[in-house]
């Protein structure tokens, strides 16, 4: 039997237990989760007991120093992504880091530089890229069905979906709120479908209107007294190739739907909405709405883990690259700076 990939987990919270570890366990013929580290040792111990992980640490540095790991998943708050990823790659590990890359562009750049220096695989947890709708539309785009994509609209809005768990409302640990948490998922999906163009300028506004007061929480009551992030962000991004992107994201907004995650594209040969997938074209003097009769249901997070494992074992490179991580982090940083200064930011 071929030697299995030995994986360590940094951060024993919800995303590790709900996605990363189960994803690896489904690939048990190729992967062995051998260690978990969390600054709260009891969390690491509980996680290890739940999933049968043999080694427990309260410092990821000790886990890396113990050796024997081929790869790690980083499932910590955003503030600690870069340091953990760099340490892991310097220790010889491939890295799957939860989104976003970090809090600043400089962190994303340092992570990419370390991956190149040590020839390690570095990829990010943008699992919507593996949604069957995105994969299908990407094939249509590559075939020229949308032509030149010149405009995109991104929506990631919840009616009352401020997280009541974790540290998602803590600016120091996360770097921001709705934009850097759920907004980046749809932003990344749109940029991926647009072939990740170079950004030119951004203009944004952020709001804290609902999160800093008590209210109905569809996911439980959040800690409104310590709410330090934006609950809403809107922005426009222009790119050096002439394309533009409109973004709207919110943890809580007075809208009809409980949740809307959507990417819409406009090209000179066709347009599309992604969730659910529908393509709009003009052919043979007729306006067409093209809807797939069947799309095989997928599990994007499992597909993301499987792609990372294949990459670690010498297969194809996962979809999300360090370069794209840098571009996305630059855009997010510029959106926040624009909102703070009230000015457009040129990149």
Number of continuous helical runs: 10
What's the number of structural domains?
2
SSE string, helices as H and strands as E? EHEHEHEHEHEHEHHEEEEEEEHHE
Structural class: alpha/beta
- Estimate percent helicity: 25-40%
Full CATH superfamily name of the largest domain: Dihydrodipicolinate Reductase, domain 2
* Low-confidence runs of at least 5 consecutive residues: none
Topology, number of strands: 15
Largest sheet: 9 strands, mixed
CATH architecture of the largest domain: 2-Layer Sandwich
- CATH uppermost class of the largest domain: Alpha Beta
Principal-axis shape equals globular
- The pLDDT mean sits at 97
Taking all Cα atoms into account, the compactness measure Rg is 20 Å
Biggest sheet, spatial arrangement of strands: 14-13-12-11-7-10-9-8-15
Question: CATH fold name of the largest domain, please?
Answer: Dihydrodipicolinate Reductase, domain 2
Strand content: 15-25%
How is the topology of this model organized?
Blueprint: E1 5-10, H1 14-25, E2 31-37, H2 41-51, E3 55-57, H3 60-65, E4 71-74, H4 81-90, E5 94-97, H5 105-118, E6 122-124, H6 132-142, E7 149-158, H7 171-174, H8 178-193, E8 199-207, E9 232-239, E10 244-250, E11 259-267, E12 271-273, E13 278-283, E14 286-290, H9 300-312, H10 322-341, E15 345-346
Parallel strand pairs: 1-2, 1-4, 2-3, 4-5, 5-6, 7-10
Antiparallel strand pairs: 7-11, 8-9, 8-15, 9-10, 11-12, 12-13, 13-14
Walk me through this protein's architecture.
The chain is an alpha/beta fold. The protein folds into two domains: 137 residues, NAD(P)-binding Rossmann-like Domain (Rossmann fold), CATH 3.40.50.720; 191 residues, Dihydrodipicolinate Reductase, domain 2 (2-Layer Sandwich), CATH 3.30.360.10. It contains ten helices and 15 strands. The chain has a nine-stranded mixed sheet. The mean pLDDT is 97.
